[in-house]
Amino acid sequence: VQLQAFGGGLVQAGGSLRLSCLASGRTVSRSTLGWFRQAPGKEREFVAAIIRSIRDGGSTYYADSVKGRFTISRDNAKNTVYLQMNNMKPEDTAVYYCALDGPNYSGSYYSSGEYDYWGQGTQVTVSS
Q: For residues 54 and 110, what is the distance between their CA atoms, to the nearest angstrom?
């Protein structure tokens, strides 16, 4: 299983970016995928998750800090998960990682320990 994340870059506050995470070796519709981020000097934190379709109809969940601004979605035909980020803030600056659940996934989508596979990370910088 491999995840390839891309789409990061530099954007001004209030702007938008869309991150993509291409999965190979697993079908995204049958997986729970999450986006996490890590800012310099801080721990990795949960951003958003989309739940595997079989269990939960593809429900989405967000951290409070991004709710209403970020949207996670899935394109099953492309086996890709997206993170649309709007109205971005300087505090959104971080390396963003996509992650895919492992065989022992227990439903705690917000916990990095639930995910066995990680993309390489893509830098997002929001200037004020």
A: 19
DSSP state of 54: H
pLDDT tens readout for residues 53-82: 665 558 999 999 999 999 999 998 999 999
Q: Is 98 helix (H, G, I), strand (E, B) or coil?
A: strand
Query: Which H or E run includes 55?
Result: helix 53-56
Q: Judging by DSSP bridges, how do beta strands 9-12 and 122-127 pair with one another?
A: parallel
CA-CA-CA-CA torsion for 16, 80, 39, 91, nearest 10 degrees?
Answer: 20
Pairing type for strands 33-38 and 80-85 reads unpaired
pLDDT in tens, 2-51: 999 999 999 999 999 999 999 999 988 889 999 999 999 999 999 999 99
The beta strands (E) that lie in 1-93 are given as: 2-6, 9-12, 17-24, 33-38, 45-50, 60-62, 70-75, 80-85
